[in-house]
């Protein structure tokens, strides 16, 4: 039987084209997705699909649509779109969705992010394993796949997406801002002109300086992965060169957004989480806000200071979204610059987070570096990966070296030290790696603690 275990991951489908993901596989996955929905009691009469700028996207999406048709589902195809535009489509149309993207992965990759109606995620615990198993069966007996007439409706939802976001954050009254935007040749080059520019809607008090807006899935300028500091270098230089108020960097499918201040320094995703949480709590006093366990300690502090209830989550969008649904949280943020909003079907949208930053900055007179200082209270290492032969044994060595620490096991091990410092050590699910995050009240203490832990991990 065909084995798709290397292609169908914990949260999505992602692999090399055509070796792992091709049109035949995409068609089987389309049929399997509809059958899984139907078997789990969901309405599967119609689904919505979109693809990013990768060259392989249109053919794979068409094959998936044919597979869905063969299972008896009609398809609404919105064509080019960002991942959060697909979530918008799933939410506003009330349809299950499939987004063809490999996010920030290199050009030879593509993939699929699946959701139920209302942008509810499909992961390994919520149907993705069933999709994989059913697709494997179909690929092992291609003659069993029936043919149905094409039932594909093409729609453009970009203007609706832009209008929806504009209603959630009003930027019309802010002071004029100059914003350098690095789209990384990804979908930000498609959505930013629609949402922040005057391509569709009336112009805003924003001067957008575009970088790498040309849609190009070969990523000729740099990887569309702003989590890697080397991919922010061009934007940082551009902000300083243009005397801009801030910079924004989007990943390939534009569902994540990173922020650069006017001096060219990154504003941490933890600070953005705290900033947005403060704004959302002003609208909904006492609401719950989710943060993952390696965001800064400043995040729950600021949530509490603004009358909210912080809830700590494991790392990963499926855990965040599950906690948001369980608690009816107004907002959730991760260290990786994924931001989730109740007003956006509990789904993540980098664009909406960027709009909150623009609104907050443009609603007062300080530069971003000064304004963001309220939310940057501690010194953090960022995530540091180490290759290890035995993650469990290495973790136990670290545990033994800190006998006085308070330790919790929500996700890996989090060590809370008496001086207010903390660090988290967790194993990768897919690679022989240990991931370390360290935070301390002062930079020198953070560096010392980081080096002490790494000497044990790598020793």
Automatic annotation (TrEMBL):
Superkingdom assignment: Bacteria
BP GO annotations: carbohydrate metabolic process
Keywords: Isomerase, Magnesium, Metal-binding, Phosphoprotein
A Pfam family matched in the record: PGM_PMM_IV
Alpha-D-phosphohexomutase alpha/beta/alpha domain residues: 6-126, 160-264, 271-378
Cofactors, names only: Mg(2+)
Record's keyword annotation contains Transmembrane: no
Annotated ranges, domain Alpha-D-phosphohexomutase C-terminal: 383-454
GO MF term (any one): metal ion binding
InterPro entries per record: A-D-PHexomutase_a/b/a-I, A-D-PHexomutase_a/b/a-I/II/III, A-D-PHexomutase_a/b/a-II, A-D-PHexomutase_a/b/a-III, A-D-PHexomutase_C, A-D-PHexomutase_C_sf, Alpha-D-phosphohexomutase_SF
Family: Belongs to the phosphohexose mutase family.
Name of the protein this chain belongs to: Phosphomannomutase/phosphoglucomutase
